[in-house]
Amino acid sequence: MSQAQVAGFRRALIDHGLLGETPIDGVYGFAAGFAEIADALSAVLRRAMADADEHLRFAAVMPRADLERIGYFRNFPQLLGSVHCFCGDEAEHRALLRAHDAAEPWAAALPPSDLVLIPAACYTVYPRLARRGAVPEAGHIVQVEATCFRREPSPDPVRAQNFHMHELVRVGRPEQALAFRDRWLERGQALFRSWGLTAEIQPADDPFFGRAAVVMARSQRDRALKFELVLPVSDDDRPTACASANYHLDNFGRALGLSQADGGVAHSACIGFGIERVVLALFRHHGFASARWPRAVRQALGLD
Amino acid sequence: MSQAQVAGFRRALIDHGLLGETPIDGVYGFAAGFAEIADALSAVLRRAMADADEHLRFAAVMPRADLERIGYFRNFPQLLGSVHCFCGDEAEHRALLRAHDAAEPWAAALPPSDLVLIPAACYTVYPRLARRGAVPEAGHIVQVEATCFRREPSPDPVRAQNFHMHELVRVGRPEQALAFRDRWLERGQALFRSWGLTAEIQPADDPFFGRAAVVMARSQRDRALKFELVLPVSDDDRPTACASANYHLDNFGRALGLSQADGGVAHSACIGFGIERVVLALFRHHGFASARWPRAVRQALGLD
Question: Which domain covers residue B293, as residue numbers?
């Protein structure tokens, strides 16, 4: 009974004072006991990724034009959060309020702004690097954190619409990118082990939109581009991807004009950890009272 | 020359590796040296506000219906970030892509979702409390953190579109709310002093939209509802509000049906700190190299 198990896990998180009640699936208020673990985990990941060439943190929005160039609207329109703003005058505001007060739809009149919600932390990085010019011979590694949004409302607490992602991004030659992806899959798995969690490496694909999805996803698997670190969290029968490591070939390089020092198109790879998912995995496997987690786990997370 | 001073401050932050370059005003990538101070400050505020009845952290979105009930679209439509999502089928996606590929506007076709960007951390709290029922006799205090959005693009780094806010919210009887506001204005000022910053308490008003703004703002000042803790940050001639403390009368209580145990309408007050603004104030007053800040400041921030 997976559905009952998911509902029970969510209820337990609320009852233990870790998540707030919410009227909208996948939009949570995290209580102090949850936030404390999220912060500890972020600190551990920052240290694990400390040999990056730079470290950036974003709030929640990024330039719409950057995401357009990346082709996000072609591949994942169903997941996008587009930021629309009112920029009218007083007459337009009066019209808006008349609709609002009559309980008629009014927000449809808001035009799109130059911003969208960040769907993955690493998307903020590639356009930024492309604007700087060619990638150095040794390549470039960026640690990046962001509040991300994906339109996937679900009662399952592992599938939030709004969440935090911690990534390490490698840009450079094909063999640099591929070696990085494979090395970090193992390092990622070892990190989970240090947190007392057994994560399995599984081939995966992205949730492309529409009929093309089948073809795109199969190609991703055939070329062994995407792997996830999965373990049971809310549902014993359907393990949750708590991290994923990807080799993008030269997709971002071509889309954004990101080139190598020698003039070739840059390749890229990344590993990303879903902060809330890892925290939920910790509560699931070690219990809802973090003070009683195994000593080695607490120490690995810097909690003791 | 205020404008040159603001531009110089922004340039210096980028040159010292604290802020990333950005193609959009007010949307920043924060580098590690900046994020480290932001985290230290958040930890200090969490401890300073630790006697709250509960502590919640939100990502970046909240229910649209809650913000509607609060009247945000009436008073501050120009600041709103409305989250719109694609929910069409393949045919609609093809139409969207045709417009996209022809460089025609396409995002206007996206309907509003049930989510908006959080404009102030405390707005997440009042509707949540109202859903729970009457406020207990002793009132209720909530510590709340959120990534906030306000549509105010500006080249001045103190005015970001997307930023973090740390608030303490008091709900209860009028005298409880007012006493809380006044006590926290002083505590806030003392906190700034502990960080080596001299913040002045100034009466203030909110940036209401349109012609009604003058009347609303004057009423706010006449009734002494809003005060800010201000100090020079990017511009010597125009001090920046780095925190604000507000008494809302029963505005939220009435709008949301939030009542007292005795049946009366609940009053509320809050104090909010703009995390990035305080961090910028620290860099402005103590220098761009945080390792060389005065020892007492570093200790107060838990950096040593």
Answer: 3-81+119-300
CB contact under 8 A, A30 and B78: no
| DSSP of B110-168 | PPEEEEEE-SSGGGGHHHHHHHH-SBPTT-EEEEEEEEEE-----SSTTS-SEEEEEEE
CA distance B237 to chain A (A): 29
CB B45 within 8 A of CB B60: no
Q: Which of A95, A116, A137 is the last residue of a domain?
A: A116
A215 and A182 both lie in a single domain: yes
Tens of pLDDT, residue by residue over B13-67, are: 999 999 998 899 999 999 999 999 999 999 999 999 999 999 999 999 999 999 9
Residue with tokens 């970001």, as numbered in its chain: B160
Among chain A residues, CA nearest to B106: A112
Q: Are residues B221 and B272 in the same domain?
A: yes
- Shared domain for A60 and A145, answered yes or no, is yes
Co-location of A163 and A234 in the same domain = yes
**What is the rounded distance in angstroms from the CA atom of residue A261 to the CA atom of residue A273?**
30
B236 and B144 co-located in one domain: yes
Cβ-proximal residues to A38 (8 Å cutoff; 6+ apart), any chain: A30, A164, A275, A276, A279
Which of B85, B132, B144, B169 should be substituted to probe chain A, the one whose Cβ sees the most A Cβ atoms within 10 Å?
A: B85
Residues of A in contact with B149 (CB under 8 A): 59-61, 83
Q: Do B114 and A163 touch (CB under 8 A)?
A: no
Angle between helices A174-194 and A32-48 (to 10 degrees): 140
Looking at the structure, tell me whether residues A181 and A104 fall in a common domain.
no
Check if the beta carbon of residue B226 is closer than 8 Å to that of residue B244.
Answer: yes
Report ipTM (2 d.p.): 0.96
CATH number at residue A265: 3.30.930.10
Please give the angle made by the CA atoms of A239, A244 and A249, to the nearest 5 degrees.
Answer: 140
Identity (one letter) of the amino acid at A104?
E
Could you report the per-residue pLDDT of A147-175, keeping only the tens digit for each?
Answer: 999 999 999 999 999 999 999 999 999 99
Give A210-254 pLDDT, tens digit per residue: 888 889 999 999 999 999 999 999 999 999 999 999 999 999 999
Burial classification of residue A210, based on how many CB atoms lie within 10 Å of its CB (0-12 exposed, 13-18 middle, 19 or more buried): middle
CA–CA distance, B225 with B210 (Å, rounded to integer): 20
Q: Which residues 76-105 of B are in CB contact (within 8 Å) with A?
A: 77-78, 80-88, 90, 93, 96-97, 100, 105
Cβ pair A40, A303 in contact under 8 A: yes
Token pair recorded at residue B154:
């500006």
Domain boundary among B116, B137, B167: B116
Bridge partners, residue B260, by sequence: B135
Single out the residue of A166, A223, A238, A176 nearest to residue A6, CA to CA: A238
Structure token pair of residue A77: 């329109």
- Residues B39 and B109 occupy one common structural domain: no
Q: How many domains does chain A have?
A: 2
Instruction: Check if the beta carbon of residue B206 is closer than 8 Å to that of residue B227.
Output: no
Same domain? For A244 and A99 the reply is no
